[in-house]
Amino acid sequence: MNIIGYLGSPRRKGKCSRLLDKTLEGAASAGAAVKRVDLIRQNIQHCMGCCKCMHDDPSREIGRCPLKDDMAALLEDYIRADGYVFASPVYDGSVTSLMKKFLERKLALSYRPQEAYATIGEARCPAEFKKGAVMIVTGNCGEEYRELMGDPCFEIMEAHFMIEQVSTTDKLYVGGVENMPEEVLVEKEKAAFDAGVRLVAEIEKSRQ
Ligand SMILES: Cc1cc2nc3c(=O)[nH]c(=O)nc-3n(C[C@H](O)[C@H](O)[C@H](O)COP(=O)(O)O)c2cc1C
């Protein structure tokens, strides 16, 4: 089983990174092969809005995009994975622009006919709920702000999983991260580790 974790923080050794690593560690302890993708290190250009990928031949697993960057390879890995961990700090009440840029380019995984009117794109290769995902969101606002700060981020990321028919197994909001005492963060890391273990268990269960 392959699990890929995507880091949407520009800080590769920050709090979000630590929590992502723990989730991947948990998944590895449950038998998964894990990989971490630091989005800041990838060449991902802005979606230019042509929608060619979405209208491309529906028999293709990934619609072709005219932009030549790392995204085609990232999407090849994405569709082969069994599970995902999306990790993003809250920036300005939403996911980081880095994470958003990646999510927008995932449009190539959905198909919508050119002539469609007022419909939503459908997944080119739906997972049929046999894949799972964990979302991690970190913010400076404390956990009582989960609804205000965490939920908009979860919604943006989960929309992708809903269209792709991927089950979300955990949504972890960790608030008050700047100046968080180390022992508190270690407790949060334990919850992140457990989420990784659960992710693998839930994917296995869905395939029995
Ligand atoms: C540009 C910017 C905007 C931010 N906006 C918010 C916000 O709206 N709500 C919040 O709780 N924290 C906000 N933060 C704090 C970050 O969420 C926090 O620094 C981050 O989760 C820490 O993760 P990291 O160590 O991986 O960078 C913001 C930080 C930056 C740099």
Attribute tags:
single chain; 208 residues; alpha/beta; Rossmann fold; 5-stranded parallel sheet; two-stranded antiparallel sheet; 6 helices; globular; binds flavin mononucleotide
Tell me the radius of gyration.
17 Å
CATH class descriptor name: Alpha Beta
User: Sheet bearing the most strands, described?
Assistant: 5 strands, parallel
* Low-pLDDT segments, ≥5 res: none
Shape category = globular
Put simply, the count of helices is: 6
Order of helices and strands: EHEHHEHEEEHEH
Please identify which CATH superfamily we are dealing with: Flavodoxin domain
- Distance from N terminus to C terminus (CA atoms, Å) equals 14 Å
Total domains, how many? 1
- Ligands bound to this protein structure: flavin mononucleotide
* Broad structural category: alpha/beta
What is the annotated CATH architecture?
3-Layer(aba) Sandwich
Average pLDDT rating:
98
Strand content: 15-25%
Q: Tell me the total number of β-strands.
A: 7
Helix content: 25-40%
CATH topology: Rossmann fold
What is the strand arrangement across the widest sheet?
Answer: 2-1-3-6-7
